[in-house]
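Project outcomes to date are best conveyed with an example. Our students and postdoctoral researchers have been running inverse folding experiments weekly, and each run begins with a structure described purely in C-alpha cells. The record below, which covers 331 residues, was selected by the lab manager from last quarter's runs and is presented without edits.
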C-alpha cells in the first residue's frame, strides 16, 4: 500500500527544501512521487523538485482544498497507477488549510491502495508570531492537524526556539516537535508516529456522513475589520497571487534589485515571492538559471539548473499591473 505524506506549512516556510531533504535521506532508494500545489499560476516549486529526478505533478492557480479537489484526487490516482510508488509526498499551497487537505487524502484511503501516513508542518520560527496574529485561521489549522512539526530557520533565531515550542504545544499538544537540523533527525520520525486525534475525528465524521464534511471556522473576536480576513473559508478570497513572465537574462544583482523594488513599493502585503529566470554572467554548462525566494525580511538568490521564465508574488491586496511596472523599473 502506498503511503501518503502531507508536507504543509505557510508561505515560504521551507516545504520544498524539506521534500528535497527527505528524498536524499528518509526515502533514499525508494520510489517517490510528488503532487505539488502552487497557489500562483507558475509551477516554480515543481521545477525545483524535478531537479531531484522526481516524478512531479503540479496543480496550480488554485488550492487542493478548494477548487482543485477533483484534480488532486485524479492526479494521485493516476500517479499511483502509473508508477506504483512507495510514497506520495503532497505539498499543498502555503495558504491551504491542512484539515481540508487531510479530508481529501482520507477520501482516497477508501479504495484500499493508499494510506495517509504522516501530516508534517514546517514552521518558520522567524515569522511565527506575526503570521499567527495576522492569518490565524489558516495558520493555526496547519499546526493543529500536524502529527509532526519541524522548525525552520532556527539557526537565525536560536533565542526563539523554546518560546515557539511552548506556543506550538499549546496549539497542538499531541504533535512531535523537532527543532534540530532536518538532516540529523532519524528517518523513522518522518515516516512513523501516532496519528493526531483531530485527524481521527475527521475520519469519524467522514464515516458517519454520506456527504463531505466541511469544517467552518467561526469569526474570531477581537480581529475586527482592520485585518479584513476570515470572511470566507477559501484561501482564494483572502490571498492573491501575481505571476509574471520574464524572458530577458539578468544578473543576480539585477534580479535582486527588481524583486526588492516590488517588495518595497507594492501596495498590499507581499508574503512570498519566488521565481526562476534566465541568468546572465553564469557559467553556461553549470547553472543557466537563477532562482529566488523571498519571505518578509529575507531574499535568497542562487544559480539553478532548472529552466524557467516566471516569477510569482503571493500576498494580500496585490495589483498585477503595479507589480509588473515595479519589476520592470527595478533595474
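After processing, the design step wrote out the following sequence:
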Amino acid at each position: 500500500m502506498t503511503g501518503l505524506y502531507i508536507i504543509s506549512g505557510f508561505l515560504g516556510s521551507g516545504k520544498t527544501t524539506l521534500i528535497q531533504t527527505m528524498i536524499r535521506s528518509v526515502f533514499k532508494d525508494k520510489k517517490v512521487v510528488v503532487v505539488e500545489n502552487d497557489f500562483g499560476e507558475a509551477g516554480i516549486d515543481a521545477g525545483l523538485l524535478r531537479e531531484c529526478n522526481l516524478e512531479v505533478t503540479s496543480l496550480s492557480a488554485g488550492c487542493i482544498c478548494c477548487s482543485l479537489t477533483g484534480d488532486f484526487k485524479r492526479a494521485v490516482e493516476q500517479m499511483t497507477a502509473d508508477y506504483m510508488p512507495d510514497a506520495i509526498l503532497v505539498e499543498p499551497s502555503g495558504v491551504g488549510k491542512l484539515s481540508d487537505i487531510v479530508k481529501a487524502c482520507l477520501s482516497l484511503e477508501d479504495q484500499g491502495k493508499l494510506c495517509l501516513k504522516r501530516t508534517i508542518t514546517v514552521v518558520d520560527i522567524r515569522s511565527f508570531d506575526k503570521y499567527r496574529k495576522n492569518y490565524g485561521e489558516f495558520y493555526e489549522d496547519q499546526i493543529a492537524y500536524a502529527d509532526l512539526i519541524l522548525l525552520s530557520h532556527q539557526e537565525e533565531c536560536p533565542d526563539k526556539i523554546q518560546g515557539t515550542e511552548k506556543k506550538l504545544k499549546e496549539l497542538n499538544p499531541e504533535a512531535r516537535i523537532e527543532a534540530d537540523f532536518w538532516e540529523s533527525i532519524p528517518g523513522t520520525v518522518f515516516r512513523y508516529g501516532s496519528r493526531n486525534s483531530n485527524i481521527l475525528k475527521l475520519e469519524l465524521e467522514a464515516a458517519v456522513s454520506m456527504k463531505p464534511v466541511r469544517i467552518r471556522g467561526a469569526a474570531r473576536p477581537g480581529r475586527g475589520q482592520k485585518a479584513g480576513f476570515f470572511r470566507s473559508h477559501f484561501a482564494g478570497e483572502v490571498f492573491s497571487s501575481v505571476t509574471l513572465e520574464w524572458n530577458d537574462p539578468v544578473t543576480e544583482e539585477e534580479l535582486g534589485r527588481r524583486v526588492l523594488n516590488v517588495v518595497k513599493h507594492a501596495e498590499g502585503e507581499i508574503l512570498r515571492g519566488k521565481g526562476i529566470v534566465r541568468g546572465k554572467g553564469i557559467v553556461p554548462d553549470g547553472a543557466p538559471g537563477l532562482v529566488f525566494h523571498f519571505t518578509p525580511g529575507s531574499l535568497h538568490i542562487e544559480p539553478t539548473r532548472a529552466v524557467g521564465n516566471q516569477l510569482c508574488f503571493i500576498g494580500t491586496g496585490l495589483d498585477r499591473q503595479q507589480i509588473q511596472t515595479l519589476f520592470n523599473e527595478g533595474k
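The first strand starts at residue 2 and ends at 9. Residues 210-233 have pLDDT under 50 and may be disordered. The training component of this project remains on track.
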